[in-house]
Amino acid sequence: MKKYLSLMLLFLLTMACQQKKTSEGPKKMAIVVSTLNNPWFVFLAENAAAKAKELGYETKIFDSQNNTALESDHFENAIVSGYQAILFNPTDADGSVVNVLKAKDAGIPVFCMDREINSANAATSQILSDSFSGCVAIGKFFVQQLNKKGNYVELLGLVGDNNTWARSKGFHSLVDNYPNLKMVAQQSADFDRNKAMEVMESILQAQPNIDAVFCGNDAMAMGAYQALAGAGKANKVKVFGFDGADDVVGAIKDGKVAATGMQFPKVMAQMAAVYADEYLKGKRDFPAKIPVAVELVTKENIAHYTAFGKK
After folding, report:
1. Single pTM value for the model
2. Per-residue burial over 221-259, b = 16 or more CB atoms within 10 Å of its CB, e = otherwise
3. 136 with 176: CB under 8 angstroms?
4. Where does the record place the Periplasmic binding protein domain (predicted)?
5. Confidence of residue 25 (pLDDT cuts 50, 70, 90)
6. Would you place residue 17 in the very low, low, confident or very high pLDDT band (cuts 50, 70, 90)?
7. Would you say 114 and 263 are in contact if contact means Cβ atoms under 8 Å apart?
């Protein structure tokens, strides 16, 4: 019995030392983003990291490269490396759920930024742009610009991202009420500029007589514009984007792009970092979803905006 009690005491002392070492270790937050191949997500990640550092945390940004398998590796790395919270921009609404649950099982809170996962109780909170409403506003402006008639193309983002469908549905909820506006092509370009240019070039061969292109993000809008410029149609076809990226803000000023939906990634990133800090300090009551408003940006009001937000 004495030997047993001695072993138990040794075990408890060891555990206490380990807990003390953990509590005295560096405070760390991981920032896992879908891709760093898009300036918008770079801005989101850097602002999340900056706010976390301001709150006293060490940070590391992980690039999933739009690959759920790589994203899974990042989560496992964050868990075993002692990160206390994960600020997360998901790769896939369904495929990313398992990674968030893995962190939850390890006692690590996950705060989603911009992109949503299809689970009501996996993430601690999801801070999301109101993409649907933002694209209703774009749809209304689109109808006005085309005088309620014409042929148009839609470039969709990643098919596994809920934002892709929220934006498309918001746009169509208004535009589809006008029978003389006809969508002659709809194709995914994965939110990627180069792919959008290639897709648009292919579409123009089959549908040379179009009046507008609605794109699910600004990277695709710029890719579509490049394709139109290469075909000598840039002055005849109106391009509409979504994000509020730097190059599109400039393109709106120059009259190359008609409009975009301004998201506020800095707001989402900073909110995620603050919420994670509050969680680690004991707070547990967080909204499941927090919508962040999107604002319509056109040449008429572009003076009030800069890249990724208001001046």
Report:
1. 0.87
2. bbbbbbbbeeeebbeebbbbbbbbbebbbebbeeebbbb
3. no
4. 30-283
5. confident
6. very low
7. yes
